Amino acid sequence: MTTTSFSTLGLDAAFVANLESLGYQTMTPIQAQGLPPLLEGRDLIAQAETGSGKTAVFGIGLLTRLNLRYFSVQALVLCPTRELADQVGKEIRRLASCMPNVKLLTLCGGVPTGPQLSSLEHGAHVIVGTPGRVLKHLRKGSLKLDQLKILVLDEADRMLDMGFYDDIAEVVAATPTSRQTLLFSATYPEAIQQISASLQKSPARVQVESTHTQTRIEQLFYEVANHGQRLHALVGLLAHYQPESCVVFCNTRQQCEDIADTLQTKGFYVQALHGDLEQRDRDQVLLQFANRSCSILVATDVAARGLDIKDLPAVINFELSQDPEVHIHRIGRTGRAGKAGLALSLYTAGESHKVIAIEDYQKNPVKHASSAALPAQGNPRPLKPPMVTLCIDGGRKTKLRAGDILGALTGESGIAGNQVGKIDIFDNHAYVAIERAMVDHALRQLSVGKIKGRYFRARKI
C-alpha cells in the first residue's frame, strides 16, 4: 500500500510544515507514486491530467535539487501556453515560500523581451516558460542551461500537438546529458513514447486513473438534426440549466467566434477563447472568466488546455471531439474535488460513431436526453454574472500591488472586502472584480480617490 503522508518522503521538516500550511495534507495518487522515484533522482514519465496534483510532484522535485548558493539555471519547466506557465510559476513560488532566496523567472511569448533580458542578467535558479521564448533567449545567449539539473516537460502531448517538437529538441540539446528529465502528459500517444525514448534514461512510469472516474459528473447526450438545431439546442441548454459558469467546447476557431456572437445577441455574457487572440485579449478573457464576471467561455481544446478554473459547474460539447480521450479530458473540467458536475453533449445521427467510441473508451453506456424537453428559444433570460471587472491603468511597473487596490476600494468608501473579488496585476494594467451591485460605486471611488498617493484611470471592461 502506498503511504499518503508527505512526512514519509525524507523532506526537510520546514518544507513539510510549509506544505501542510499550503493545504497539502496528504498526497494525491500521482504524488504518492511519482515523488519517491523522482526524489531518488530517476527520470519520470507520468500520465496525469490538470487537477491531479502533478505540479506539486515536479515542483517539490526540482526545489529539492537546487543549490541556492549558485546563481545558475538549475531547473527548467517547459509549458505549452503562457497561462499554464504563469500558473506553474505561481505554484512553485508557493511551494518555495519556506526557502529563502529562490529566484524564479517566467519566460513566455506575447510580452516584450526587454524586461526578461534584464531579469536574466541578475541570474535565476528556476525558469518556467514556453518553448519558443526559451529558445529565443538561448539563441541570444541571454539564457544558459549548461548547469541544468532537472528538465520538466509539462503537458508534453499538447506541446507536440502545437508543433513545438523542433523547439523542444533544440532546447534539450543545450542541456547536460546528466540532467534528470520529467515528462508529464494527459494522454500517451506514440509521439510521447518516442520523445521519452529520445530524452530519458530508464524512466519510472507512473499512470494514475483518470480523476474524472471518481467524480460526480452527470453526462447527458442530446441528438440534433442539423447545425441550425445545434445552435437552438445550445441556447435551450443554457436557458434551462442556467450555469453560473460554463465552458462550451468547439472544434474550430471560426465556430468559437460564430457561437459567441450568436449567444451575445441573445443576451448571454460570453467570451471566445482561441489561438488567434492577441495575448492581451487572451489575458482579459481568461481573467474575466476566472473572476466570475463572464459566465460562458466558448473555447477550442488547445486554447482551453491548462485552464485552472475551480468549481466549474458545467461543460457543453457543441460538437463531439474526434478523439474519445479528448472528450473525457473536456468533461473532467467539471465535477472537481468531489463536487457535482454537468457535462452536456450535442451530436447528429452522422456522429453516432463518436458516441459509440466514447462508450467504449469509458466502458459505460452514455445517457441520452430529449432535446424536446428543452425550453423553446423564445426569449431566454441569461443569468447575469455576479461580478464586473474594472481595468486600472497601472500595474507592476508603477509598483501597484493587490493590497493597494483593495485598500483604496474598501477604505472609507462603504465597499466591504467581501464585495471585492479577484485582483490581477500585469505590467501596465491591473484588473479587479467587483460585485455587480457595487461596481458603479467602486468606479466613482477609483476616479476620485488615490491609490498609493496617485490618481489612476479606471474603466469597466
Compact summary:
By secondary structure, the protein is of the alpha/beta class. The chain is built from 17 helices and 18 strands.
Q: Helical residue percent?
A: 25-40%
Could you name the ranges where pLDDT drops below 50 across 5 or more consecutive residues? none
The radius of gyration over CA amounts to 23 Å
Largest sheet: 7 strands, parallel
Physical arrangement of strands within the biggest beta sheet? 3-4-2-5-6-1-7
Arithmetic mean of pLDDT: 88
Structural class: alpha/beta
**Strand share of the residues?**
15-25%
How would you describe the shape? globular
Q: Span between N and C termini?
A: 52 Å
Tally of separate helices: 17
Strand tally: 18
Give a description of the structure:
β3 (104-107), α5 and β4 (126-129) form a beta-alpha-beta unit. α3 crosses α4 (82-95) and α6 packs across α8. The strands form 3 sheets. The protein has a 7-stranded parallel sheet with strand order 3-4-2-5-6-1-7, sandwiched between helices. The protein has a 7-stranded parallel sheet with strand order 10-11-9-12-13-8-14, sandwiched between helices. The chain is built from 17 helices and 18 strands. It is an alpha/beta fold. The N and C termini lie far apart (52 Å).
